[in-house]
Amino acid sequence: MTQPSSLPLSMQPAVEAPSPYTTLVELTWREKRIEYWIRFGPQSYEHILDRHRRLVGFAPGTIFAFIRWAANDFGTVLSRIDIVRAIERGEPFQTLPFVRPGGDILLKAEGWPKVARVLEIIDAIEALGIDAYDVVPDHWRHVHHRIAAGLEPTPYTTDRHAAWLKRRSVEP
Fold first, then answer.
1. Concatenated DSSP letters of 8-61
2. End-to-end alpha-carbon separation of the chain, Å?
3. What phi, psi does 64 have (nearest 5°)?
4. pTM of the full structure
5. What is the pLDDT of residues 125-145, one digit of tens each?
C-alpha cells in the first residue's frame, strides 16, 4: 500500500472534489493494528485525510475489493474482504462500513481462512492475465456462495471471460 503524504493537511495541494456519483471508501493504515486497503479496482479519486487515513473513490459500475484487517495485543480481531460494485445514481444498494453511500456487494467473506481463499482466487484470475475488476460480476457471487457453503468455486477461465466481454459489448 502506498503510504500517505507526511505533509500537514494545510500544505497539501488542493484536491478536486469527487463527482456526486462517486462511491467513496475510507482507508486506514496503522501498521499491525488497523489495515484497510483496496486489493483491486481502478480508483477515480483519492484524497489524503491525515497520516493514517485516505479517501478513495470509484466511478459508478466499477468493481473493487475492499479488505479490512484489525488486531489487538492478543491477535487478529477482524479479517474481511468485500467485493463491491459501485452503484449508479438511484440504484438500490447495501450499506457497508467505511463505504459511502454503499454498493452492490458481490462477495463478502469473514475470517482469515475464507479471506485467504478469496485472495488465492483473485491471484489465480490475475495469473491468467485478467484484471480482477473486469471479471463478470456473477462469478464473484458464485465464489461467495460456494465459499459460504464450504465448497470449492468453479475456476474462472479465459473462455468465460471472452464470453463475458462479448456479452457486455452488445448489452444496452
1. -GGGSPP-PPPPTTPEEEEEEEETTTEEEEEEE---SEEEE-SSSEEEEEE-TT
2. 37
3. -145, 160
4. 0.87
5. 999 999 999 999 999 999 999
